[in-house]
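ZP: hey, is the alpha-D-galactopyranose complex queued? I don't see it on the tracker
AM: it wasn't, my bad. submitting now with these inputs:
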Amino acid sequence: MKSNPLLLGLCFSLPCLLASAKDYLISTNQTSLLIKADQGQMSSIQYYGSRIDAKDISSVYDAGQAFWSNSYPAFGLHSWGEKAIEVVLPDGNMSLDLVVDQVKEYTSSDARITEVILKDKVYPFVVKQFYKAYKGTDVISTWVEIVNNGDKPVVLNQFASAYIPVRRGDNWLTHFHGNWGDECIMEEEKLTNGQKVISNKSAPRNAHSDNPSIMVSLDGQPREEVGHVIGGTLAWAGNYDIRLDATNNDLNIIAGINEDSSRYILDPGRSLTTPEWAMTYSESGKGGVSRAFHRWARSYKLNRGHVTRDILLNSWEGVYFKVNQAGMEQMMKDIAAMGGELFVMDDGWFGNKYPRNDGSSSLGDWVVCKEKLPKGLDGLIQSAQANKIKFGIWIEPEMANTKSELFERHPEWVLSQSNRPLSTGRGGTQVILDLTNPAVQDFVFGVVDNLMTTCPQIAYIKWDANCGIMNYGSHYLPADKQSHIYIEYHKGLQKVLERIRAKYPNLVIQACASGGGRVNYGLLPYFDEFWTSDNTDALQRVYMQWGTSHFYPAIAMGSHVSANKNHQTGRVVPLKFRFDVAMSGRLGMEIQPKDMSAEDKIFATQAIAAYKKVRPIVQFGDLYRLISPHDNLGLASLMYATPELNRAVLFAYKTSHFVNQNIPVVRLTGVDPDKYYKIEDLTPAKADKKCSLHGKIISGKVLKETGLKLPLKGEYSSLALELTAQP
Ligand code: GLA
């Protein structure tokens, strides 16, 4: 079927209803998605790939490259196989016959949106499919709004956000599997026929077991800077399901909320909006996918993504629950002396009737423990001000302990079942609040609002969530809507976060959930950053941060220098290696400074100063992953570069150590071959012992094609080098 280029031209100049247009080309700078939507017919995806123009559409069809793939296949009619939607209509009919009613195209402040409205041929049931091309990025997202226009409830058994065809060939899947303390570990595998499902059922921490983000390569084993790769992420913080359905000739990605235990009843006149599935298409391998997502995140999916992040000291590994006035004041003085900009008081500061001394009490009682902090938060803020640093605080506002005044007052605010004993989490007493309940939403908003009203100087909040939904029961939702808990919990949480952001747009908030349990684009728009993992071991972080970097930018990746030996692994690693790893993300410290030697404090002060110098390159630059730790070459390396390629930072970490070991050459893909770069050692082990590359001026051509032989000798050798293009 050929399109009419004249008609297409018209579509793009008129932000109006265009029921007669058939081919809708949705484009970013480098990518295009082609939808075919004829009135009264099914809507289909015909193409997703490198950018094409209206004049190329007929070639897509003529070359036999059109997919003809139903954009939202419904159960019960026309075909077999995987579907996007399955319902039970009021008369028991389980089929839908969705056809195009109309197509709208319009521009919002951040995007160009194409809305395809599908209607059932017989029943008053509507599915609005949205395609959003974000301005200035290469990300297109899609989601649906499902509307029941009838006068009786409709049951939704399946309600995907996206059903995306992928060109079948030598497809490989990259995904990010993990666990507590071992988050986001890259896995790559060839997609054979059958189904591969990446899913999660650990709400509200959905990123520990597997991140809701995947890459699919179209032409063999995925590589960093070459090859055609689709990347996609589900912007949802709850249970999710990403299904890759492959046969000899077809491959489809079906992504959305995980419908298991989440049958949704749509009352008359009500609608359900599914989360965005955001995707990009890269001609330059996985690196291209990552850079596209990082830019999108900084522009649209991160609170204040264009503002540099402070260098902080977080108190957790330094004192754990043993918070007191003198201890906090000493830590503030120490981090300020090393050049830090922010101090965050972690867990252990609250509760009066039940002071928080371990994980078994006090969550919900968000009042300062007078015994531990007699001068209150004001006293701490004054100390921070005297040290010329900012002050931040830890909370876990969605939670309670059964040993808390909150639980004594409101046992009905907790997700639980009245006729069964409570299952509890951390400390044997932790439970989760019922965020489906508007009164609970008010309370959770109030936790932040009260803190900020009484202490407006608070600059940073670490928002933790250390418990899953272990008691599936809401005292707020009616009996017939108990299956909505997983979904309504997150909608409730989003409402709270929207209120917080409306009132406190500049407050820095970190998303933490037992480490990296909430690294997803469902929550990140409300947050400034995330805690990557509770595991701060620098060597294991090389792997975790490698995986995390595939979809999430360095500016958001909390990365802290911690004690020697490391508290999680017991590994002993030089301070330089620990800094070089932490400096590749949002640098911070998670240590007791009073236990550091004078020599280590001098090193830390110099490294912090060096980070400040290159911070804009790390936090706003483009990432190029150079040597993967998973290739077992004994070396991992990555770099950040400005878009103009005039400044860059190179990081390299020796990941194993043997006699007569061959250290691979590192080819710097993020440089301009026509420029010359001066190299500066950012973190010399001793100020007067810079590495042998320091001060050298090397051509971009050599750096990129021939590569650098890095002077990495001892165990846990590492380098952080700045490259500056010479005028
Ligand atoms: C979680 C977080 C840690 C720390 C503790 C405090 O485990 O991930 O960083 O804040 O809670 O209890």
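AM: back. The two ends are 54 Å apart (CA to CA).
ZP: great, adding it to the tracker
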